[in-house]
Amino acid sequence: MKIGFIFAGQGAQKVGMGKELYDNYTVAKAVYDSVKLDYDVKQLCFEGPEDMLNDTAYAQSAILTTSLAIASVVSSYGITPDYVAGLSLGEYSALAYAGAFSYKDAAYITRQRGQLMANALPAGTSGMAAVLNLDETLIQDVCEQLTNQGELCQIANYNCPGQIVITGTSKAMELAVPLLMEKGARRVIPLNVSGAFHSSLLKEAGSKLREVLETIEMEKPKLPVVYNVSGQESETPLMDLLEQQIQSSVRFSQSISYMIDQGVTTFIEIGPGSTLKGFVRKINRDVNVYSVEDVASLEAMIKEVKPNE
């Protein structure tokens, strides 16, 4: 049996995340206690306030710390992955777990990345929207039409069949709704985000992120990592991939399909929530998928997944 760990992205955060595992597992406690940032990560994760936890500037490092704490507990049962991947922010959790950089450095990077993304674009000038039940080629047609009219519109996330996220200027998001509905979209849902993440509007943020990454000691990951930018493994230098990732489409659906093609039959979502579990089920119903975020979900997963020999 081949296992893939898939790490949660931004939006999964919730007050109280990780607290139960922190209280019950020394390995989870060790992860939280090792992270030192300019705010109290444990307090924010466990107690809030919610508005601060939902702020991109803080959410990313908080989710990453929680995800790595959860992964440490799963690994303590001898359950380890053959492949790792993550949704946007989750890619940093995957890379840290795979040994590309330390957990402490990963928390620092995602704190900086969160601040860069939160402040990258003037408030109200750009946004994102989820498009439900419309073929990606038709969505791409609308994006190109609007971009040609001077309003940048791009695909941000290939989440799963039937759910693609678009990103761009606020005007593009507004104009896209009737065009996408005309082509047959079931719904177009504006997302509560501070800007057009994963668009070329974040090119400058990507350059600034690279400056942060240049201060970090990085190593070749010890596990196969499936990257957002390509939806597969890559020999491209990690710094280049991460600079691109902030301004490029997240190919999550393609990443899951790639891992399945490599023989992965079991996916374990690591982090708060179960969003990725839902995506995987829409991508391929023949694989096993579990979410782990607390003691109950951990125990339910362990009953069915045996450690890799």
Structural notes for this entry:
The protein has 14 helices and eight strands. Strand 4 (153-160) and strand 5 form a beta hairpin. It folds into two domains: 2-120 and 201-304, Malonyl-Coenzyme A Acyl Carrier Protein, domain 2, CATH 3.40.366.10; 126-193, Alpha-Beta Plaits (2-Layer Sandwich). The chain is an alpha/beta fold and 309 residues long. The mean pLDDT is 97. Helix 2 (26-34) packs antiparallel against helix 5 (56-76), helix 5 runs parallel beside helix 6 (90-97) and helix 5 packs antiparallel against helix 7 (103-118). 47% of the residues lie in helices and 16% in strands. It starts with a strand and ends in a 5-residue tail after the last helix.
Unreliable sequence segments: none
Oligomer: single chain
Sheet-strand content, in percent, reads: 15-25%
What is the CATH architecture annotation of the largest domain? 3-Layer(aba) Sandwich
- Highest-level CATH class of the largest domain: Alpha Beta
Give the number of DSSP strands. Answer: 8
Shape: globular
Estimated structural class: alpha/beta
Query: How many helix segments?
Result: 14
Strand order in the sheet with the most strands: 2-1-7-8
Alpha carbon gyration radius: 19 Å
Q: What share of residues is helical?
A: 40-55%
The CATH homologous superfamily of the largest domain corresponds to Malonyl-Coenzyme A Acyl Carrier Protein, domain 2
Tally of separate domains: 2
Key features?
globular; four-stranded antiparallel sheet; Alpha-Beta Plaits; 47% helix; alpha/beta; Malonyl-Coenzyme A Acyl Carrier Protein, domain 2; 14 helices; four-stranded parallel sheet; single chain; 2 domains; 309 residues
